Structures are given as structure tokens and as C-alpha cells.
Amino acid sequence: MTMEPPAAGDQRRSQLLRGVLDLCLLSLIAERPRYGFEFAQALADGGLQLVSDGSIYPLLARMERAGLVASYRAPSPSGGAPRKYYRLTEAGRAELGGGRADWQAFAGPVGRILSGTHSTGETTP
How far is CA 68 from CA 44, 73, 75, 88, in A? Predict the structure, then answer.
């Protein structure tokens, strides 16, 4: 058995994450309104350290243009410049609900196949 170089594993995780990062952000916003830096921190705390600010901000802007999130400015508790917070819209809540259902429908079968517990009715020699 050959070992895969760590860079290849990071690349695969990055590709997988690209397809669900929007749902992860929507889910984090559903917990409470958040500002930019908090997203990267929350994702890293959840085990997704591969996400950079450069991936998060363009996605938030796209989601705002699509009407899934709305932004507002609020004073910084530390007295600095006001922070831009994001909150879910009704369309964002609907998108998150549908996305969660889609993820469960996708992740369950993939998990069974990858764990070798799927059943095709065929036997292997």
C-alpha cells in the first residue's frame, strides 16, 4: 500500500469543501450573525483549517447578491472600525434547509460506499 503525500490529501479536502462551503457559511450564520474574521475562526474550530479569508469574502458577496444573506454594520466592541455582520434572509434559511437535506442524501450513500458497508446484492470473488 502506498501512502499519499499530505499535499494531495489537502487538495482533495479543498475540492470537497468547495462544494459545501456556502452551506457551512449559511449554517454558521444561522447560529448567529457573524463578521468576516469569525467565519475563518469558526471553520477552523470545526476542523476546516484549509479555508482562507480569500475564499470566504467573495462567497459572502455572492450570497448577498443572491439574497441569501444581508449585511449590516455594527460598532466593534474593541472600539475599532465598525464591523460588517451577515445575517440570514428567509431565502437563506430556505437554501440552508434544502442544502442540509441534499447533503444528507449525498453524504450517507458516499459514507456507506467508502466504509465498505454498502450492499449491491453482488458478491465479490
Answer: 23, 17, 23, 6
Convert the pLDDT of each residue in 41-96 to its tens digit. 999 999 888 777 788 999 999 999 999 999 999 988 888 889 999 999 999 999 99
CA distance 108 to 90: 27
Distances in Å between the Cα of 84 and the Cα atoms of 12, 64, 89, 113 are 32, 12, 16, 42
> Rounded to 5 degrees, what are φ and ψ at 48?
-110, 65
Place of cell 434572509: 89
Q: Provide the grid cell at 51.
A: 479555508
Q: 78: which residues sit within 8 A by CB, 6+ positions away?
A: none
